[in-house]
Amino acid sequence: MARIGLLTGGGDCPGLNPVIRAIVRKGIDHYGHEIFGFRKGWKGVLENDAIELTRENTSGILHKGGTMLGTSRTNVYKTENGEERVLASLQERGIDVLIPIGGDDTLGVANKLFAAGFPTVGVPKTIDNDLNATDFTFGFQTAVQIATEAIDRLHSTAESHDRVIVCEVMGRDAGWIACWSGMAGGADVILVPEHPFDVDEVCAHIRNRHENSGRTFSIVVVAEGATRSDGGAAATAADTLDSFGHVRLGGIAFELEKEIEERTGYESRATVLGHIQRGGSPVAFDRVLGTRFGVAAIDAASNGDFGQMVALHGTAIELVALEDALSQPKLLDPALFETAQVFFG
Ligand code: F6P
C-alpha cells in the first residue's frame, strides 16, 4: 500500500477522466493505495492543493470530456524555488509516487523530478498525437472525429456557394490531426508543419480540380503550425508566450482565404475549429486507451518502474523511459502524407 499522487497538466484532452478513473479503481481495489489528485496541474502541487480520490468521486466520469481535476500550464521550473516547493509539498502530503498526466511540458517536469530523486510515472496526453515513443495518445481520435464531422459540414456549404473553404485545425509541430481529418473528410489540399507550403502550388491544385474535374468548390485543411516554403514562422494569434515559452498559434486560414481568392478568383472563406477539437466526450477508442494507460500507470507505480511512461506500441501497452518520449516530437509519418497527397487537387 502506498500513497499515490496524480495531476493533469497542460491543455485538456478528451480521455483524461478515463485515466483518472482507471488509476483510482485499480489503485484502490487491487493495491489498496490511497490516491490524491492535485488540482490544476503543477499549480496544485506547488500549493499542496489536492483532494483524495475515491471510487465514489471518480464514478460517472468515464464519458466526460475535460479533467475533473482541472489543469494549468504552470511551469515548476519557471517558479521561484519551484522544485524545492514541489518536493516539500509531496513530502508534506506523504506522496510516495507521482503520476503526472500530460504532454511534453508536463512530462518534462516529471522527468526532472525523477532525476532529482522523486519516483514518477508518466502518462502521455495530447490531442496533437505528437509525443514520441507512443503510437497514439488519447484525445487524438476524438479531435480527428470532431474535425472530420466539421469538414463534412463544410462540404455542403462550400458546394452550395461554389466556394473554397480553408479549415484550420490544431497541430503545433505536427500535422497528425490535419492529415487524418483531411483524409477522412476528403480534403482537396492538406497543409502540415512538416511540409512548408507554397501558396501558388495550393492554388494550382484548386484550379486543377475546378477546371479539370468539373467541381466548383474545394476544401483546404491546414494545421495551425503550417509554415511557408519561402520562410517565416507560423501565424500567431497573440504575441504573449505561455510559461513553457509557447506562442499562441492561429490565423493561417485567414491568410490563405485572402491569398487563394486573390490568386484564383474563387470566393473563399476560412473556418478555425480551435478548442472545439478539445472539448466534449471522448470517442470509444480514447476511453479505452485512457483506461489502459491508467491501469498500466498504476501497475508501474506499484511495481517500482519509475522514470517511465506508459505507451501504446501496436496493440500493446508498454513502458518507455520518460527521456525517450521527450527527446523530440513525433512528426507525421511521411508515408501517410504521401497517401494523402494522392487526393490533392
Ligand atoms: O498542445 C495541444 C494544443 O491543442 C495545440 O495544438 C494548441 O496550439 C494548443 O494546445 C492550444 O492551447 P491553449 O489551450 O493554451 O490555447
Automatic annotation (TrEMBL):
One of its GO terms (biological process) is fructose 6-phosphate metabolic process. Pathway: Carbohydrate degradation; glycolysis; D-glyceraldehyde 3-phosphate and glycerone phosphate from D-glucose: step 3/4. It is an enzyme of class 2 (transferase). PROSITE patterns: PHOSPHOFRUCTOKINASE (PS00433). InterPro entries: ATP_PFK (IPR022953), ATP_PFK_prok-type (IPR012003), Phosphofructokinase_CS (IPR015912), Phosphofructokinase_dom (IPR000023), Phosphofructokinase_III (IPR012829), PKF_sf (IPR035966). The record marks 105 as: Important for catalytic activity and substrate specificity. Mg(2+) binds at residue 104. The keyword Kinase applies. Residues 3-300 form the Phosphofructokinase domain. Non-allosteric. The active site is at residue 128. Its EC number is 2.7.1.90. Diphosphate binds at residue 11. It catalyses: beta-D-fructose 6-phosphate + diphosphate = beta-D-fructose 1,6-bisphosphate + phosphate + H(+). It is found in: Cytoplasm. The record marks 125 as: Important for catalytic activity. Its main location: cytoplasm. GO terms for cellular component: 6-phosphofructokinase complex. Belongs to the phosphofructokinase type A (PFKA) family. Mixed-substrate PFK group III subfamily. Catalyzes the phosphorylation of D-fructose 6-phosphate, the first committing step of glycolysis. Uses inorganic phosphate (PPi) as phosphoryl donor instead of ATP like common ATP-dependent phosphofructokinases (ATP-PFKs), which renders the reaction reversible, and can thus function both in glycolysis and gluconeogenesis. Consistently, PPi-PFK can replace the enzymes of both the forward (ATP-PFK) and reverse (fructose-bisphosphatase (FBPase)) reactions. This is Pyrophosphate--fructose 6-phosphate 1-phosphotransferase. It comes from uncultured Solirubrobacteraceae bacterium. The gene is pfp.
